[in-house]
Amino acid sequence: MSFNLKYKPYGEYAILIEWPSKIQEDILYDILKFKHKIIAENIDGILELKSAYNSLLVVCDKEISDLKSIGDRLKTIYTKEEVKDAGVDSVTWIIPVCYDFSFGLDLKQLSEEKNITVEEIIKKHSETIYTVYFVGFLPGFLYLGGLDDILHTPRKAMPRMQIEKGAVAIGGKQTGIYPVQSPGGWNIIGNTPVSFFDPQKETPCFAKAGDKIVFKPITLKAYGDIKILADAGVYQIEIENGHD
Amino acid sequence: MLGFIKLKSKTGMIKVIKPGFYSTIQDLGRYAYQDFGVPYAGVMDQLSAQLANHILGNNLNDAVLEITMKGPELEFLSPTLICVSGAQMNPMLNKTPVHMNKMISVEKGTILSFGKLESGVRCYLSVRGGFQTELIMRSRSMYSGITKQITISKGDELEIGEVNRFLADKNAHVKVNAHHISEHVIEAYEGPEFSKLSKEAQHILKAQEFTISNDNSRMAYQLKELLQNDLDAILTTPVLPGTVQLTPSGKLIVLMRDCQTTGGYPRVLQLSSQAINVLSQKLTGTKIKFKIVSIEF
User: For chain B, which terminal residue's Cβ has fewer other Cβ atoms within 10 angstroms, N or C?
Assistant: First the structure.
């Protein structure tokens, strides 16, 4: 499927490519496919590609003399047939989450507001397969799509000054994991011992746009056990078995 | 024999006696990690930092010390060559004033200090071979959560690069146009959402003077004057240093080098790369004016 894309200069060294303003998987995969095609062309002067829900920013280096000719080249690449092996590989990561009240600070309030049990909240949250749209906001923060409508919850009127690393939270129509300790206004329902960002690694965040995330409820005891391994950098995140 | 061993030694050291108000090690930033949510960081005023490196014959990406508002006091534990560029903060070696934008040879035990800030905000110290502090994701730029240190602090011993003494004879006094330190015109391109602004708002943005609020940092500069608008929020989208965001309440936020990788506010302007350097040298309360430029596309 092809979309009608908009190409705009973004300052003197970048080109913004826009898809229709919607959060949709077909748009995400079209962006990723285009990204792979551009990478495969290995164009001189392109420094990096960054994508979000419905946009791709092509950042060029300061040596380029003609942004327009790069723009024209990108337009041609988009319409080109897909390159072999340039498909998008998607990994499904199983993320252990402890929904104990000691972590899930807002679980009780959510349960009262929505008039559903805490168990139901946990079930709804952990039976969905979420799609990683992109990583942004903070290093290792995943923008996930797919949160069940019933769990949509406005951000808190008073943001917390400090949210713990690993906090699993709901903000508006989104759910996410705080990769580092930070202030924030999302409703906290649990915590994962898994680290989403490690600056010492060549690939500092294991998940990427196009991957899937599943949350698996774990006990407080299991949390402690995994945490020890994760903090030592030896915890192997489970991957859902696909075909081999 | 001892002298021979010294010549072979590749690195030197600088000791931090006082760190100054906010001094960080920066190079040109951390590229190609934006898709992990990692900010670029890097020197705020690339022009001054690159000049300081150029004068010493360094690579333009070598790490320098970015000094903000109030200078540090540093002791050279080994001889090296230095250059100070950017904001005028009256640099002194052993309390004797030294020139800016000039290669200076310093002996072991020399103390570098700074006086009153006269112009600009950020001053750059380059050393021959560059600072050799922690390299993370191909950059030494300090950033919270990425590098262990966020600023230099008292007692630090900062490793510096190899000294090539032969270069000291080269007359590397470069004629400098420090115009960008005093410049008040901020060149900008129309941002992706500029055309959604009312004609009146577009006109105000082009014609009115704006004041830099006290909420300004390496992450963003907020402007004092509000720009009334009825723009809708946009789906979270990529942003860059130099992106001017407009909030529903009318606040204009100019993103700087430490900015997040994505944002959800409409992007009304995009500063030229030179304009980011210019803005980096502006103090709270300074009046600026946008000049809208366009690019052939």
Answer: N
